[in-house]
Amino acid sequence: MVANWSQFGFIVDQGLDRPVEAEKTNVCKGCFIITERNEISLGEAQGLRDTHEVIQDAFYVVVQGLSPSALGVTSTSPLVPPLLAIAPSIAPPPPTGMTIAVNDVVFENNAALNQAQRITFGYNIGFTSTDAFTAEDVPVQVTATIAGLSGSATIDLTKQLHPYMDHGTTSWLSADTRVFQRRPGGTFAQQMLGNNPNDFIKAVIDSLRNSSMADSWFDGLDPTEAGSQLEWSQYINNQAVYNFAICRVRYRGEINPAPNVRVFFRLFPAMTTSTGLSAYDHVSHRRATRYENRATGALERSAFGFTHILRL
To answer: In what order do the strands lie in the sheet with 54-66?
Structure first.
């Protein structure tokens, strides 16, 4: 049997020789947990306790194959009944000093209350004390249950220092990474790019580490797909173009600093410079060797990268 078969959708051809997953429907019921913060340090718990803050959406409970109406929902704006009344229950109770509370819910289709769909609940984690940190590593089992469905995950409480990165409004995309391109003469973080990109990015990192404007500069980099577009070519009009990637690491601790934090960026191989499907040749009954331009319909060859494997 295929793993996770219940999450498959339907692959259809809409008559354009472009099979797409256009009719994905959650026909099977399921419940699982996505942990955004699967490890929490003692230092962070102390900070949360003293400031009366929480880790927002520390984990998500995803329910699929159920309609909102099956949970008793009659309205999503405002939500009726209240969030607490429809949220999955969490068991066993968290250890002493640790709190878990539902924070929000997202429906896949707010307008179709009777349609089976994916429903995602976000849960906050807070601390009223640090009594739960009884060992170097304390695994906390979290099980969510709703409508006869359940899913489990483990959150580790650790006495080790634990820098982390955070997600944004889209749970699976980080709010702490940015990519951008610059040409010689371009600037960022009060640094100008000359002819040495390594010197430039070192100076940028120093500026970000030492300036109170760091978050403003970082967040000012456009994170959208269009705004963060990189350049395949090394030169445009005989002028060099450089691509850069940076990230922001967070750390909360009242006593001990986290020294020598290191981050690595993983480069991975891709089989093509385009993720689009090439068109089907009805004469040769083979996929074309060129890529279809979705705007014009013409078949074109990739301009940059290697013939077989492009390393990104």
So the answer is: 30-35, 54-66, 117-127, 98-107
Cα(18)–Cα(22) distance, integer angstroms: 11
- Give 138-148 pLDDT, tens digit per residue: 999 999 999 99
Give the model's confidence band at 302: pLDDT under 50 very low, under 70 low, under 90 confident, else very high: very low
Task: Pick the last residue of a domain from 219, 248, 277.
Answer: 248
List the structure tokens of 53: 């803050």
pTM of the model: 0.70
Strands 242-247 and 310-311: unpaired
Among candidates 73, 84, 144, which has minimal Cα distance to 108?
A: 73
> Are 142 and 156 in contact, with CB atoms under 8 Å apart?
no
User: Residues 153, 244: one domain?
Assistant: no
Q: How far is CA 288 from CA 89, 230, 292, 299, in A?
A: 52, 27, 9, 8
List the beta bridge partners of residue 153: 142
**Residues sharing a CB contact under 8 Å with residue 203, sequence separation 6 or more, in sequence order:** 189, 191
Q: 258-262, long-range: CB within 8 Å, 24+ apart, which pairs?
A: 258/161, 258/162, 258/163, 261/163
> Smallest Cα–Cα separation from 230: which of 142, 139, 289, 305?
305
Residues 11 and 60 grouped into a single domain: yes
Q: Report how far residue 155's alpha carbon sits from residue 100's, in angstroms, rounded to the nearest whole number.
A: 12
Residues 154 and 21 reside in one and the same domain: yes
DSSP 143: E
Distances (CA, A) of 23 to 106, 279, 293: 20, 21, 24
Per the structure, the complete domain to which residue 83 belongs is given by 5-159
Whether residues 120 and 11 share a domain: the answer is yes
pLDDT in tens, 15-64: 666 665 554 555 589 999 999 999 999 999 999 999 999 999 999 999 99
pLDDT in tens, 158-191: 999 888 888 877 767 788 999 999 999 999 999 9
